């Protein structure tokens, strides 16, 4: 009994020492102006697998539970992450378009991709949440894609990376939300990223989405953007009663077993409800009563701890 109390005490003393060391390393880096942003992209070529839910929930948790300064970059023309954080004033946007004027409030991530002179700080907006900023999307981002492909003066894959590099010192993390496509926009997201996480459902289409994402995007980008590594694959909207199909299990065991993370996000209606209420999940369920909130908290803690460890080993 006494031994176990002493063990607990020494573990908590070790934890405190560890946290103090982390804070010291962080302070030193801030003093030296060396704070480096880690950029993570959430991608699966299949739609509706929980990319936006993961980005918005984990970004907010990194800020609210881990004291990180986080930028959400929304490179999906659907703009679902931008919508959730509610920074887009659609009435203002529609009026501005009708009057054919570009107001500063209508700047979005696409403007940064086509205009290298534009400063990202003019486009990034503070959200209502402490420590959380947004680089918003806009429906016309889809048209920007065509402009990018047509412009051969300047390498098209590196546009987002070059712009995010200009704010590397301002944030601890940048999380990028992507559309389900193999587009030049998603290639820009991967080139800018240090790590890619792949959320998936357990159906055949989502699993094939992993295959396409890995072979058509990740492997291609890795050839010329040496920084990129695969953080892992995790299941979302998981229903334990249905479990995982035998086919899915076989495919994962055969091809991706070493990439499957020990984190699964359970299905819960709160995840869908919070986006309708324009709130990140933890703000909607601050007491973490919902299992999916606790699942995301565990995955977020892993992502934060990994970054701390990388900082210590750097
Ligand atoms: N764990 C969950 N439990 C219940 N509903 C969820 C969960 N995760 C996501 N959803 C809901 O499923 C739908 C699709 O999720 P989400 O928008 O995050 O997917 P996505 O991969 O970003 O989709 P797209 O490819 O269209 O961008 C949304 O209505 C979302 O609220
Ligand atoms: Mg989405």
Structure description:
- With 314 residues, this protein is of the alpha/beta class.
- The chain has one domain: P-loop containing nucleotide triphosphate hydrolases (Rossmann fold, 3-Layer(aba) Sandwich).
- Helix content is 51%, strand content 14%.
- The protein has helices spanning 2-31, 51-66, 80-84, 90-98, 109-114, 141-150, 159-165, 184-192, 204-224, 246-256, 269-276, 281-284, 291-313; strands at 38-42, 70-74, 125-126, 132-135, 173-177, 195-200, 229-238, 260-266.
- A hairpin with a 5-residue loop joins β3 (125-126) and β4 (132-135).
- The chain starts with a helix and ends with a helix.
- Bound molecules: adenosine-5'-triphosphate and magnesium ion.
- Adenosine-5'-triphosphate binds at residues 47-53, 76, 78, 80, 179-180, 236-237, 265, 267-268, 271-272, 275, 292.
- Residues 51-52, 76, 80, 177 line the site of magnesium ion.
- It comes from Marvinbryantia formatexigens DSM 14469.
- Pfam families: AAA_31 (PF13614).
- This is AAA domain-containing protein.
- Residues 37-223 form the AAA domain.
């Amino acid at each position: 009994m006494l031994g176990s109390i002493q063990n607990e005490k020494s573990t908590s003393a070790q934890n405190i020492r560890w946290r103090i060391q982390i804070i010291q390393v962080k302070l030193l880096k801030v003093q030296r102006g060396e704070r480096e942003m880690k950029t993570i992209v959430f991608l699966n070529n299949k739609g509706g697998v929980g990319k936006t839910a993961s980005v918005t929930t984990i970004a907010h948790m990194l800020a609210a539970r881990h004291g990180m300064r986080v930028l959400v970059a929304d490179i999906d023309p659907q703009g679902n992450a931008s919508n959730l954080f509610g920074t887009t004033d659609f009435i203002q946007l529609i009026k501005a378009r009708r009057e054919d004027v570009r107001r500063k409030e209508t700047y979005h991530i696409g403007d940064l991709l086509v205009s290298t002179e534009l400063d990202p700080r003019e486009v990034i907006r503070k959200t209502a949440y402490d420590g959380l900023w947004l680089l918003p999307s806009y429906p016309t981002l889809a048209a920007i894609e065509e402009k990018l492909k047509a412009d051969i003066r300047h390498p098209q894959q590196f546009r987002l990376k070059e712009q995010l590099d200009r704010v590397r010192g301002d944030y601890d993390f940048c999380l990028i939300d992507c559309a389900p496509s193999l587009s030049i926009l998603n290639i820009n997201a991967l080139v800018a990223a240090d790590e890619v996480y792949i959320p998936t459902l357990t159906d055949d289409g989502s699993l094939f989405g992993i295959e396409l994402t890995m072979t058509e995007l990740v492997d291609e980008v890795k050839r010329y953007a040496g920084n990129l590594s695969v953080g892992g694959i995790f299941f979302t909207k998981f229903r334990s009663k249905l479990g995982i199909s035998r086919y899915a299990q076989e495919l994962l065991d055969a091809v991706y077993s070493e990439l499957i993370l020990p984190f699964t996000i359970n299905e819960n209606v709160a995840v869908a409800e919070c986006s309708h209420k324009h709130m990140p999940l933890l703000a909607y369920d601050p007491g973490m009563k919902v299992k999916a909130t606790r699942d995301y908290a565990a995955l977020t803690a892993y992502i934060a701890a990994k970054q701390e460890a990388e900082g210590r080993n750097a």
